[in-house]
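Every protein is a chain of amino acids, and every chain bends into a shape of its own. The protein below has been through that process, and both of its lines are reproduced in full.
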Amino acid sequence: MKSAALILLAAFATFAQQTQKPDLSKPPATFADYPADTSLNACNDFHTYACATWEKTHPIPADRAGWGTFSLLGEWNRAMLQQILDETSKGGAERNAIDRKVGDYYAACMDEAAIEKRGLAPIRPELDRIAAMKSKKELAPVLARLHLVTSSLRVGGNSGATTPVFGYGSMPDFENAAMVVGAVDQGGLGLPDRDYYFRSDAKSKEQRDAYTAYVRKVFQLAGESAEKAAADTNTVMSIETLLAGHSMEVVKRRDPANLNHKMSLAELQKLTPSFDWNAYLTAVSSPKSDHYLVFTPDFLAELDTLIRTLPLAD
């Protein structure tokens, strides 16, 4: 139910940026409602013949790269979702269990005053769990907890950049689609891709500076002084840059053969002896896998080096 509420909220967040709401009393228009301009010769310019009526009445909005009938359908759908959220969040005895969950979840998320008043309280247990670590052996269960609470048990996508430290999830085996196996991917990057850390052009430097300022602000919001936040931000950027340097390039990742490294659990453990995979897999409730797909062995080898050589605080 929580996932359904999140989907509704995400859809509303996108819709809230629009300036006009569709008329929900009727379905959205389709391309059939804007017939071809039969005064034109289709053989001379078929695009204008087919689309002129639509284009005259539906110019591309300034904030969009394109605009079509599916755009109207998307706006209509988001408006309908917003209506559902508005109605279910008003309360009332007539609401059923699903309405209450969706409506209360939405109302709580929109109550900014209450959110600001609570401050760090909702995530304090997670921060305390990290702060309580006494040795690097505890990294596996703590990291598993982070993967669970941030819903980042996944692999692939933009090379797993946004997953804490590395990505883990399930997927069909590259050579046997009937078999679902565990997969380990590179991760740990706050910027979208490894190249963002190394490009030397002005735009890339601007992006890194903006990201650095963001990380520093997050540390300050978590209660650190400006000096401590700056020092910790430097640590974050140093570690992420090291991880980026051993991450596979996005072009190389397009070939599945470059990701298809089969390993047993024992081989995976041997590759990263400083990380307790049994503890991690147990903590994320992962079933045993016939084998594991290790997308980027070089990345994991570097990760093991960092675990061995960096202070626990880092």
